[in-house]
Amino acid sequence: MARFVYVECFIRADMDALWEFTQRPELHQRWDLRFTEIYYLPRADGEPQRFRYAFRLLPGLVITGDGVTAGDRRDPEQRTSALRFASDHPLSLIRSGSGYWRYVQTHDGVRFITRYGYRPGWGPAVDLVFRPLIGWATAWSFDRLRFWLETGQTPERSLWQALAEVCLRTLTTAIAITTAPTAVACLVAAAAVLLPPLPSTPAARRCLRRPPDRQTATAPLTLMETP
After folding, report:
1. pTM for the full predicted model
2. How many Å separate Cα 93 from the centre of its chain?
3. Strand order in the sheet with 37-40
4. For 20-25, which contacts have Cβ atoms below 8 Å and span 24 or more sequence positions?
5. Who contacts 160 (Cβ-Cβ below 8 Å, separation ≥6)?
6. Exposed e or buried b per residue across 21-57, where buried means at least 16 C-beta atoms within 10 angstroms of its C-beta
7. 68: Cβ–Cβ under 8 A, 6 or more apart, which residues?
8. Which residues partner with 118 through β-bridges?
9. How many Å apart are CA 28 and CA 11, to the nearest integer?
10. pLDDT tens track, the chain, 227 positions
11. What CA–CA distance (Å, rounded) separates 8 from 102?
């Protein structure tokens, strides 16, 4: 795994609340765009937690995979949850991977950080397109989680609001193209693409997509990660 996906989001919430919303599968699957379903498998005391995940492409077409995760919450100022995951589904664009979530307490909230790498399922050419998309989906999901914790806006409402905003921008552009002069239509189309989302709509651009400093970029791998 030569390259990693990095996303960081600052969330004004209690550390315990953020931990619960990210560690409970029934909550996690509601805000994370990368999964349709996540559930834990039975385990014995002292063993890492194994889980299964699924992503529904179409009705009746579901990509599934398995993983294992372990969390460390002993440090009150910083917690870590590491995981490995893999899928042998022929349509999966991720064959296997590993990474972590890191929770860093600050005086007014928590820095919620992820770094993960993976082995592409369809080769490097397809991954040139897929890697930016999965990075965007991670960041968008983190901002959706932030809304849930900070304002109480549910993930479902955030999704519908985002879809409505995209539809409105698309419709406005289409009307401008068909009714307005070319110069005006171009301005409207540019505005539809470049203007930031509404303050109450999740946006990937609100998250950091690169490590903010060298120390973060070169942080040691967790025990579950592989170079």
Report:
1. 0.90
2. 16
3. 5-11, 110-120, 94-105, 78-86, 61-72, 49-58, 37-40
4. 21/145, 21/148, 21/149, 22/81, 22/101, 22/112, 22/145, 23/71, 23/81, 25/51
5. none
6. bbbebebbbbbbbebeebeeeeeeeeebbebebbbee
7. 48, 49, 50, 51, 83, 84, 85, 224
8. 97
9. 16
10. 447 999 999 999 999 999 999 999 999 999 999 999 999 999 888 888 999 999 998 888 999 999 999 988 888 789 999 999 999 999 999 999 999 999 999 999 999 999 999 999 998 999 999 999 999 999 999 999 999 999 999 999 999 999 999 999 999 999 999 999 999 999 999 999 999 999 999 999 999 999 887 666 555 555 455 44
11. 9
Contacts of residue 138, defined as CB under 8 A and 6 or more positions apart, other chains included, come to 5, 7, 33, 34, 114
Are 68 and 48 in contact, with CB atoms under 8 Å apart?
yes
Tell me how far apart the alpha carbons of residues 46 and 41 are, in angstroms, rounded to a whole number: 14
Residue type, 96: S
Q: Which of 197, 10, 222, 198 is nearest to 117 (CA)?
A: 222
Question: Cα–Cα distance between 100 and 117 in angstroms, integer?
Answer: 10
- Separation of alpha carbons 87 and 55, rounded Å: 11
Q: What is the Cα–Cα distance from 126 to 111, expressed in whole angstroms?
A: 32
Residue 187: phi and psi, rounded to 5, are -65, -45
- Residues facing 98 on adjacent strands: 84, 117
CA dihedral 23, 25, 30, 33 (to 10 degrees): 80
